[in-house]
Amino acid sequence: MKPDLPCLLALLCLLHSDAESVWGTTATSTHFPTTASTSFLTSDFSTSSTSTSGSGWPSSSSKSQSLSNFTGSKDDHGTCQCSVILPDTTFPVERVERLEIIAQTVTKKFEKELSIVKEYVQLISVYEKKLSNLTVRIEIMEKDTISYTELDFELIKIEVKEMEKLIKQLKVGFVGSSVIVDQLEVEIRNMTVLVEKLETLDKNNVLAIRRQILALKEKLKECEDSKVENLPAVPPPPAPGSCAHGGVVNISRPVMIQLNWRGFSYKYGAWGRDYSPQHPGKGLYWVAPLNTDGRYLEYYRLYNTLDDLLLYTHARENWIAYGQGGGTVVYKNNMYVNWYSSRDIAKVNLTTNTVALTRTLPDAAYNNRFSYANVDWQDIDLAVDENGLWVTYATEASTGNMVISKLNDTTLEVLNTWHTKQYKPSVTNTFMVCGVLYATRTLNTRTEEIFYYYDTNTGKEGKLNIVMQKMQENLQSINYHPFEQKLFVYNDGYLLNYDLVFQQIPQ
Asked: Which of 57, 144, 212, 474 is the most buried (most CB within 10 A)?
């Protein structure tokens, strides 16, 4: 239908007078009465080609094109009715909201991936150190002429396999640059090849050289013996399981056995060796890591030999549902633990993994009331020495100072009790040797100090200054084995051994 001229003129007037209100709409209907005076503008409208500048209005040609999308007609009363469809130039609110939602989603995903990357960076740092240690060990093996046993190679293989497993996990889940991960993978692969080459060396030549070295050592020993024939005899060290000494005067550097079998996330726990006076050198090795909450003892493992423990082989894994804290010990094939959320002590038969007996420790504070410094849930700390079973704890009456009790290992009755002047939460851990309590404290992230003792034989207490190196920052538990005269230390998930040095008594 051809547009009516009066309607067209009315529409132009409307656009000219109120462009702001019309421009932002998609459709506008305007009604004007018909007048005869509009005819003289017909030629001006059809021939106009002048463009305005600076006003934001389009040129007349584009305006004519825009105004072609309209209809106009007159009703019965002579009123002009016009409708025009203008371009949609409204603000895109819905699109902006969608963009905001997408931006928030992307931010959350980025933060999640960033946290994963940070975790992998920490894991890479740990395994870089292990790889460095392995490199040093293999370099020594390459240069040394002493024969190495199959166990030495198996231990290295296990560590390399652990790193290979981690690298595979990193490659699957790592997002971003993987140059470091690829480099580590290559180094680990080279390490595996190197170990295999070392195993295929001429073992006969190595054994021959070792025999020569042993022969030279024997000759040197004979020379040393001949030099000291006329010197006064030095008192021998105390026999295993004997208390014929003047107490602990020094300690060796730590020997790292391995990481606990559940992994480095299980930083709290205890480990040691069963001691029985009837069979002092034949006890089982046990490892009891707590759950990652640092409180609940749920699983423990038993090994017949140290080699089995080192190789993670022939293990007996048991489950219990009541252990709490790292104050666990094993004595005469029974495990003694603090019963969960109580001041009770439980005696567990290791052969059957059943509770043989429970008994309440009178007045003992529990549930993290007076635990050690940096170690939670160890209010009740059990110990074994040459004299039997002991427990260290605190009471409300002692205002947090350490209390030592000797226990009957059969009935768990308290036989005798001693009160110290040492505040328990200021101590990092304790152990018993020949009826003497020794306490440690932290000097820095790599050093502890055996700084305090209490002798239950004489009732005396005092200060010591024995420096104790450690592999990680916190000591979670210390257990003493009377026959081996060693400390079994659980150090942030790692199993450490220390040899004790005693003051010799002249005979």
From this structure: 474
